[in-house]
Structure prediction request, 354 residues.
Amino acid sequence: MKPSDIARLRLHHQQISQHSFTKPEDVVRWLVAVQAQDYLHSLWAVGLRLKNAREEDIEQALVDKTIVRTWPLRGTIHYTAPEDVRWMLKYLAPRVITRYGTVHRQVGLDAKTLTKGMKVFAKALEGSAPLTRPELYEALERAKIDLSEQRGLHLLVYSALKGLICVAPRRGKQPTFALLDEWLPATKIPDQDEALASLAKRYFASHGPATIQDFAWWAGLTGTDARKYLDMVKNEFEEATVEGQTYWFKPVEGKLKPATGDIFLLPPYDEYTVAYKDRSVVLEEAQAASTGNGIFRPIVIAGQRVVGTWKRTEKKNLLHVQTEITPPFAKAKQDVLKKVIKRYARFVSTDLES
Prediction:
């Protein structure tokens, strides 16, 4: 196995170079969690993994509660399946909360204030339609809680990590928040070993080939725990050592589709890059600086690797997609890129600027 084989398998397993699912919730359930703090781009993170999706399909899944947006991994907002939310918060959030303790102390959020903030949110949201962030901040201010130094945001994230609230669909352009127990029906929580062994199994199936270090980074586990839970399921995976690193992955049944000629527009924070501690398989050092380590800017993939960035703008209801690719594509690849951009325009239901 070569590094290019690793990249090609990841494109396949992550549903980028081929599509096995027809519904947003199936994509999210397969990937376990899809990073989603950049809301509009995160819709494309799900949509690009479906054959003919539209932006409104992903938003409707949020309305229908077949996917939910909250903070289950690494203290970062993700999409997850409803049945996964509570066990992920129970077993993965405590380490995040402990890590945030330093920040909370720095901004003056002691245990008493954190508890008070949660009580304010619970009272404001109980039996209510979802509320926007400004509306919840107003409730905090009425309770005499100081909102300087982003305390309001810290209280929102803390309350989500504690399983009190989750993100609900937008009202206009504003995200809203609801009580998790009112938004989603109760679900059975498996015991810790069962849950985290399943997490390892699903991660390596959907994101492999990957290393133990990749899994630990993605899930927010210690290296010891990552090894423990992989050991519980690794007999279901193949193992390969490439350039001194050991990878686990699901073998592909039948012939794997070549992806060397394919081009993909990926959003920032896409699982293709953010889900791995070591991104060198798909990201050269020269591209790391210009793309924010392949994470912070929307990226262009060609030949299975990061080759540049892209940006969307709208003017007079027309979409313009600008790319910065190094080295520039030859004409044949430019034609492929145009088709990819057209696919994105269909997703956002906007005509392209001629």
